[in-house]
Amino acid sequence: MAAPDVTQGPLSHTPARPAGQPLVVASSSPDQRSQNHWSGAGAQGPGVIALDVCGGDVWAWNKTISGTCHGAGPEARIEVVVNGDAIPAVQAGNTFGATVRLRPGENTIRAVATGAHGTIVSNEVVHTVRLSPRPTARITVSIGDNDIALDSSGSDASDYDAAPITAYSWSFRPNHPGLTVALTADPAPLAGTGPRITVPLPEADGEYLVSLTITDKQGRQDTASVLLAVEKGRARHVDPLREAAGWMDGATIYGVIVRNTGAGRFQDVIDRLDDLADLGIAALWLAPVTRTLPGHFGYEVVDYFDVHPAYGTLADLKRLVIAAHARGIRVLLDFVPNDTSIEHPYYRDAERDGPSSPYHDFFDRDEVGASTHYFDWSHLPNLNFDNPEVRRFMTEAFMFWVREAGVDGFRADVAWGIERRRPDYWLDFSAEFHRVRPDGLLIAEASARDSYFTVNGFDAAYDWTDDLGVWAWTDAFDGSAPIAEGIRRALTSSHGDGYDPDSFVLRFLNNNDTGPRFITTHGVDRYRVASAMLLTLPGLPCVYTGDEVGAEFEPYAIAGAIDWTDRHNLRAHVRKLIRLRKELPGLGSRRWAVLTVEPVRHILGYLRFAADGTSPVLVLLNFGPDAVEAALAPVEIEATLDGIVALTDVYNGTSVSAGQSARPTISMPAWGIRVLVPTNDIAAHTEAPHALEQGRATR
What is the pTM of this model? Predict the structure, then answer.
């Protein structure tokens, strides 16, 4: 299959690439492309000078230029000439090198040797710096009894030219969970235009986002933000590397495959936003939208700075983000930092020119110099994160979409691969991301049982076992053990050691990698009960493309629109559970306990409760085709149902009696779902639903 035109946007490829092919003197060797001769008085004898590496993109301001020179004599002076400026090179035998300063855009480079016999000039190469000079805004927070001091004196001038910062513009907006205006209204300006301001303590509890835009003498700008939480009249600075933003509590995300939505354009996703807002979705997770090969799903990236033309344009994506924000929905991109396609211009260049390519060291290599890859992904070569240019390249790629499209976060594909090869990268990246988006969401494609991702700035990771890509719930539904027993094992750990206590687990029944849909494999009855479990467990549940209508397809196998017909009345079921998740503080926290329930074969029970042990929610699920009486064993946790006789099933809208015994019994219909709360809690939930959204998730 022919590769698309990938030379647009921020990628460059110098057409005439003679670097590594020396310009020689007095030689007629047929394998030498061009010749040069000593020039000047007394010029004589052969001499050759050549640069080691061809021209291409550069993701740094400084670059070491090296080469070889033969026949010039030990007294020859070698200089590297950059844009007409000569920099003395350090010579060692026949080799030389110099670290040079580059400017934004194209830089012409050649080497010149001057000796007793005259001057010899190397081939010329062009290195194109793809960085944009800008200052870096930074904010520190000091909180007093009645006010908050914000200080940006630690902001950095541009690392290109150190142009002084000349202007400071402060603003703020509420950032309460579920508050649509937080995503749509223009931030309110704050008094003061200097690097330090003091603002009064907000009167209302909730979260507040304070932003700073700085401008340097060259007119270049950068924006950073900080997140403040006010709880019971006391303020604190939310450290996004250690604590999730409040909007994630009780949130449900929705995985979107653009190509399976309508005609497969961004506009088709926009057309579904009202439906998704009504469903209660807090954030969209868009399957890869960067430029890829025709007909491919999107993980074969050929341009990190442009959208796949089949979906529309960058402007169309911006319109999608703005339209989602107008409905209180955030937008995440599925991003692919670990590897590129073999058709990426950098990889093609490296394969063609070998060590003479400026991108040869952009790719991870084994002991014989071959590019590496995971599994059988030979078409997806790993990037070399030990190369600082690669780290800068990828961070710039991530942040391009934040700055240019306004996205709110990322799902990082193969995050575990970068952890293995360069474990310090993710903390550096997450610090930069959260400097700009302290309320943003980062999801690692990695197991939530690995505490590395929790402490390195990710908000969530996958519900996998310790084995890569193995869904934790797989064994629960394969028939090898009673379903309820298998699920209980899966929800703790297959090895009994449990998840990291600070993990925030991305839970799912379906995603892009799960093949046939759960409903196809297990049937609609089991799917209905399993989706109730998905939306009432702690963590971050994901409803994937078409799950709310029971769509049956395989993501990698179908490129066109799927059937959105809701044949099983599932949408109302999913919508109700998402609403309960947002409204009941017990479902929005991370606290829970698995209960012992008889009969054990098909009945799963667990108690959800708020961080302070209040607001208990009893969830009972019958994964079997027969009605049963579910008997609950006593529990020894701070949140119990002791003494509570009257329960309301908020899923079915009925009252349930738990009885007075120490082992209450509750009737469960076939394939039954019960979400039970103390009846005296219902009035509070009805009167002030938004007050229920103030729980916090920490890591």
Answer: 0.90
